[in-house]
């Protein structure tokens, strides 16, 4: 079971990485509206993972920008760069794998009760949360490319290094 979940997460991380890589700098901060723009959605995906895996260590952005997890209302120029997000994808992929490997799926889930009764429900909820927002990111990528974006769902089956 763990191996299958690790494979599903791996595909999701690779898909996310490919999409972030495919945006250009202008579309990264300008495609979409309100809080639904690539930089913000990507930061939210990473922030959600940080929350559900219960990471308590500080996470610095390689650009030197302040990491305050304010994806929704922070100034756009303070949002992580594409390179920041790609770096975080690599880190969180490793941390998520460790989280899954060390988890007893049958343990009671008392912290995130809306996800279900046991720990596997948190794992599945987080995967769904990531893929929901990656779907938004895919739409924004296609808008930015006038419908000519890569099919990163298929591309992520390749041997892509995150």
Give structural attributes:
single chain; mainly alpha; 0% strand; 6 helices; Four Helix Bundle (Hemerythrin (Met), subunit A); 162 residues
Notes on the protein architecture:
- By secondary structure, the chain is mostly helical.
- The chain has one domain: Four Helix Bundle (Hemerythrin (Met), subunit A) (Up-down Bundle).
- Helices cover 57% and strands 0% of the residues.
- It has six helices and no strands.
- Helix 1 (2-22) runs antiparallel to helix 4 and helix 1 (2-22) runs parallel beside helix 5 (119-144).
CATH architecture: Up-down Bundle
Which strand-content bin applies to the residues?
A: under 5%
Mean pLDDT: 93
CATH topology: Four Helix Bundle (Hemerythrin (Met), subunit A)
Largest sheet: none
Rg, rounded, reads 16 Å
Low-confidence stretches: none
Query: What best-fitting shape do the alpha-carbon axes yield?
Result: globular
Order of helices and strands: HHHHHH
Number of strands: 0
Spell out the blueprint of helices and strands:
Elements: H1 2-22, H2 25-30, H3 38-52, H4 82-102, H5 119-144, H6 152-155
Helix pairs in contact: 1-4, 1-5, 3-4, 3-5
Structure at a glance:
The protein is mostly helical and 162 residues long.
